[in-house]
Amino acid sequence: MKKVIKQAFVATLPVMAGYIVLGFGFGIILRASGFGILLAVAMSTFIYAGSMQYVAIDLLTGGASLITTALTTLMVNARHLFYGVSMLEKYKGVGKRKGYLIFGLTDETYSLVCSDTIGLEGKELKDYYLLVTLLDHSYWIFGSALGAIAGSLISFNTTGIDFALTALFITVFVEQWLSTKKHFSALIGVGASVLCLLIFGKDSFLIPTMLVIALLLCLYKEKKKEKEGKQND
Predict the structure, then answer these.
(1) Cα–Cα 20 to 30 A to 96, which of 33, 49, 226, 227?
(2) Percentage of residues in the chain with pLDDT exceeding 90?
(3) What span, in angstroms and rounded, lies between the C-alpha atoms of 230 and 233?
(4) CA separation (Å) from 186 to 79, 183, 198, 207?
(5) What angle in degrees, to the nearest 10, is found between the helix axes of 66-76 and 206-232?
(6) Residue 60 above 90 pLDDT?
(7) Minimal CA–CA distance to 126: which of 117, 138, 135, 139?
(8) Is residue 132 a contact partner of residue 16, using CB atoms and an 8 Å limit?
(9) Distance between CA atoms of 99 and 141, rounded to whole angstroms?
(10) pLDDT(179) > 70
């Protein structure tokens, strides 16, 4: 068990660095918006949705309707549907861990559990999945609590802090672009975002963008399957 704990901790160190900083920013902004420390901890514990938690602050302060909130949450987190499908085999037979593993499947956790797990198999591998998920979750909660506490003790201008999440997405996008030869998916994302921004405006473009991206990627996937099928024939 010590070996599994050590391996999971070492693997999640990069995530810890990012989550504490991002969680800190979330906690500060939430506190600056007039909400307490307990809400920051509760949201990070029970919602645990990263970018959606940042969006939720604007929804809470802007008086958004339940329908708008539900649709926004669905579209922002729709990518997890694809993650979940790819994890069906990997999480098969994990027992009581499954519920929490599904809940705690973030982008970074997905990346870690799909990477090489040298020397682990059987129960050790299942424990590794659980520990990686639990550690990443705890980093986010700690960062959020720390930010909310800092926001209540220190008075300063919070303008620009919410850009931390945008900066993270830009970094991930650039890294993905540099690490792959095919950029069709990335171009779909950028093109659909710009088009919907011009058509619907900055306050209403998110949901249409996600729908367009999902539709185009599904069409691309089907076309790719047909092409591969013809090649096999």
Answers:
(1) 49
(2) 20
(3) 5
(4) 14, 5, 19, 18
(5) 30
(6) no
(7) 117
(8) no
(9) 19
(10) no
Sorted by sequence, the CB contacts under 8 Å of residue 126 that are 6+ apart come out as 93, 94, 95, 97
- With tokens 């088009």, the residue in question is 195
Ordered alpha helix ranges (H), 154-205: 163-179, 184-200
Q: What are the b/e assignments for 34-59, b being 16+ CB within 10 Å?
A: ebebebbbebbeeebbbbbbbbbbeb
156-167 pLDDT tens trace: 777 777 676 677
Q: How far is CA 122 from the centre of its chain?
A: 27
Task: List the one residue out of 45, 14, 54, 28 whose CA is nearest residue 138.
Answer: 45
What's the pLDDT tens digit per position in 6-54?
Answer: 888 998 888 898 899 889 989 998 998 889 999 999 999 998 988 888 8
Considering only residues 32 and 229, tell me which one the structure prediction assigns the higher pLDDT.
Answer: 32
Which string of DSSP letters, residue by residue, matches 119-135? T--THHHHHHHHHHHHH
Residue in this structure with the two tokens 């708008």, named with its chain if needed: 68
What are the boundaries of each domain within the chain?
2-162, 180-233
pLDDT in tens, 99-125: 999 999 888 888 888 776 666 677 788
Q: Who's near 143: CB < 8 A, 6+ residues apart?
A: 19, 20, 21, 22, 23, 24, 26, 27, 44
